[in-house]
């Protein structure tokens, strides 16, 4: 994707900074090199892949107002602004998570010739923006890190305009994979036993305390509270089936390990059956919730 404007911007110093902080932290968790984590975080191709999933429901996002809840280092905001013509904003907390994410993302905005104020300090439970404003709300791998996932879903709905679409991507802890640690995971395990499992695997168990072990049953219950104000468009079952049966997904972070498992299932001729069983058991992962505000 060398034609993207974002890819023409020199970001090596920012990449090195992210590798030292975010990358090193996750290298200790999942044994994926820090530099790979940083490069993946700054990858425009990763944003392109996310947008293909989102635009299946939204169509062209040019001219649309878009809020990313949990914008991290700001790459999604920058790419959607520079290369997709969206009026994108990011919401990122400054006092939790990885120190300096707001400062680094604002630095990235300036490097891209964008106003640093596009990154707004705040948390998803209390979005400091007006109601009924955004055409689109997007969030990925954030809901498992917040204090109150249910409240974040309510806030996402609040700031959407009527007819607007939100897409929330979150790991399913009713499934068999934990992406932060990059390891197989028993579904519906409690935090107590999750910490024991992680310790037995030789990983740092403290990170488990920062996770909300969200599952698909919980998500359905929380979204049920918003009925009839929202229309559920998808939970991600079709996308999961496509990835399971084709093996066609990128090896971001520790997903190369998942690719090997999926390819083994495909070579044994059991990928379709495994996909069917996992979908029947609400064990798809990630959950890709897409809804429209009525």
TrEMBL record:
Pfam families: Methyltransf_11. It comes from the Bacteria. Residues 67-166 form the Methyltransferase type domain. One of its GO terms (molecular function) is S-adenosylmethionine-dependent methyltransferase activity. InterPro entries: Methyltransf_11, SAM-dependent_MTases_sf, Thiol_S-MT. This is Methyltransferase type 11 domain-containing protein.
């Amino acid at each position: 994707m060398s034609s993207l404007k974002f890819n023409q911007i020199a970001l090596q110093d920012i990449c090195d900074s992210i590798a030292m902080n975010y990358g090193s932290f996750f290298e200790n968790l999942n044994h994926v090199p820090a530099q790979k984590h940083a490069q993946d975080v700054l990858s425009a191709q990763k944003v392109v892949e996310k947008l293909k999933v989102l635009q299946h429901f939204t169509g062209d996002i040019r001219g649309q107002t878009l809020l990313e809840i949990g914008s991290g280092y700001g790459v999604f905001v920058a790419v959607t602004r520079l290369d997709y013509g969206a009026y994108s904003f990011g919401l990122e907390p400054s006092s939790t998570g990885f120190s300096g994410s707001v400062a680094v993302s604002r630095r990235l905005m300036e490097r891209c010739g964008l106003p640093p104020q596009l990154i707004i300090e705040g948390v998803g439970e209390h979005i400091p923006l007006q109601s009924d404003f955004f055409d689109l709300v997007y969030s990925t791998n954030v809901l498992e890190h917040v204090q109150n996932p249910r409240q974040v879903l309510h806030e996402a709905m609040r700031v959407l305009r009527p007819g607007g679409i939100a897409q929330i991507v979150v790991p399913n802890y009713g499934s068999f994979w934990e992406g932060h640690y990059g390891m197989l995971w028993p579904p519906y395990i409690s935090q107590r036993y999750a910490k024991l499992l992680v310790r037995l695997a030789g990983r740092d168990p403290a990170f488990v305390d920062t996770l909300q072990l969200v599952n698909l049953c919980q998500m359905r219950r929380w979204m049920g509270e918003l009925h009839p104000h929202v229309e559920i468009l998808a939970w991600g079952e079709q996308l999961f089936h496509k990835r399971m049966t084709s093996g066609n997904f990128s090896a971001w972070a520790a997903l190369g390990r998942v690719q090997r498992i999926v390819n083994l299932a495909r070579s044994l001729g059991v990928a379709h059956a495994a996909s069917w069983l996992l979908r029947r058991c609400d064990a798809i992962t990630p959950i890709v919730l897409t809804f429209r505000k009525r």
